[in-house]
Amino acid sequence: METKHVCLLVVTLMFMIISITNADTSPVVVKKIKGKKVCDQGWECKGWSQYCCNLTISQYFDYYQFENLFSKRNAPVAHAVGFWDFKSFITASAIYQPLGFGTTGNKTTQMLEVAAFLAHVGSQTSCGYGVATGGPTAWGLCYNKEMSPMQDYCDDNYKYTYPCAPGALYFGRGALPVYWNYNYGYLGDNLKVDLLHHPEYLEQNATLAFQAAIFHWITPLKKGQPSAHDVMVGNWKPTKNDTLSNRVPGFGATMNILYGERTCGKGDIDDMTTIVSHYLYYLDLMGVGREQGGPHEVLTCAEQKPFNPSTTKDSASS
Predict the structure, then answer these.
(1) Which residues touch 187 (CB under 8 Å, ≥6 apart)?
(2) CA distances (Å), 207 to each of 61, 91, 130, 268, in order?
(3) Are 96 and 218 in contact (CB under 8 A)?
(4) Parallel, antiparallel, or unpaired for β 29-33 and 36-40?
(5) Average pLDDT value for residue range 270-288
(6) Which of 55, 155, 230, 252 is the most buried (most CB within 10 A)?
(7) What gap in Å lies between CA 94 and CA 87, rounded to an integer?
(8) How far, in Å, CA of 205 to CA of 52, rounded?
(9) pLDDT tens across 147-170, in order?
């Protein structure tokens, strides 16, 4: 009888440990639609998606990691103290996780994508320099807007589709800085927010700023081209022309998509290597390891021809 009591006690303790461990995680609800497994994980990954059957971002990327990646963002000399936080990032990402952002593939693939996205965000909002405490990679999310705009970024060629609003200035704002009236108008249409008349919203609401950046990340610039998301999760298969242009899947191609010839096809220039440095630094801090970034031709776009040579103005994140 004593043995039975001991066994019962062990089982009870195991059940209690499992219950406590799972107390803060949303239950995964599973069903099949047309023979395909889909899931719902509550607020963070809601809507019966195949991607919600995988880990959610907050299950492998935690508050303390966000703090490590952006450790200097609230330093007294930073320009957006108190603006950016982990909650804003997760709240914004929850909209896109059912579409595969940070929820595609296995854990390694998921972490590589989040590290890649945040590396672009960190490098584009950094106020760190080589002599800065902690080095330049520690100063991501220092800005939420362009501090000394050279112009108002109003293009009258779009006066019939996205006309410039009186008094509005369309300089860079956000996590992946948005420029020009047509980009604010297009983003506003898709996010259901009037950014054309109120571009300042992107410097007033961190969740919206992250949301705009993630939308840009998962949306192809042109039909027939990959998004940065597609490149990082293996959805993109290069064409013969891509191969001849040295465009291969990997972090380098995300720079090609987001910045084009401003950054790519010029060898190992500072603009490109700074972004790469952020990615490698973030991979290490997230516990993935920089070796997962791949060889030089995958990690960089030094020899890649741009997807879209500039006959028009730069993209939204330029």
Answers:
(1) 178, 195, 212, 215, 216, 316
(2) 17, 7, 30, 34
(3) yes
(4) antiparallel
(5) 96
(6) 252
(7) 10
(8) 26
(9) 999 999 999 999 999 999 999 999
- CA dihedral 181→187→316→111, nearest 10 degrees, is 160
Share of the chain above pLDDT 90, in %: 82
Token duo for residue 101: 């952002």
By CB neighbour count within 10 A (0-12 exposed, 13-18 middle, 19+ buried), where does 132 fall?
middle
> What's the full length of the chain, in residues?
318
Residues 6+ apart with CB under 8 A from 271: 259, 262, 263
The predicted structure's pLDDT at residue 26: 66
CA 202, 204, 208, 209 torsion-angle sign: positive
* Residue with the larger pLDDT of the pair 81 and 27: 81
In angstroms, rounded to a whole number, what is the distance separating the alpha carbons of residues 291 and 299? Answer: 10
pTM (predicted TM-score): 0.89
Residue 5 clears pLDDT 50, i.e. is over it: no
Tokens 């109003």, residue located: 154
